[in-house]
Write a structure and sequence with these properties.
Layout (H helix, E strand, L loop, with lengths): L22 H14 L3 H19 L9
Helix pairs in contact: 1-2
């Protein structure tokens, strides 16, 4: 019998970062995410991953999420 419900995603996101922002910063980030057509959390995660990868590779350090 087939199971009902949404299928499980491959990787689970089990950590979170608490980040304090000004109202203007949050609005600008939300506007950019809306323009990209993706949720704010996804937009922020993608940008943080891109910058972290660049900075760690420039320092010849491993990037934990690329392993």
């Amino acid at each position: 019998m087939k199971r009902l419900g949404r299928p499980k995603k491959g990787k689970t996101l089990d950590e979170y970062i608490e980040l304090r922002l000004s109202t203007a910063e949050k609005q600008a980030f939300r506007d950019a995410a809306d323009r990209s057509g993706i949720p704010l959390a996804t937009w922020a995660r993608e940008r943080l991953r891109r910058i972290a990868t660049r900075e760690l590779e420039n320092a010849a350090l491993p990037v934990a999420f690329l392993k």
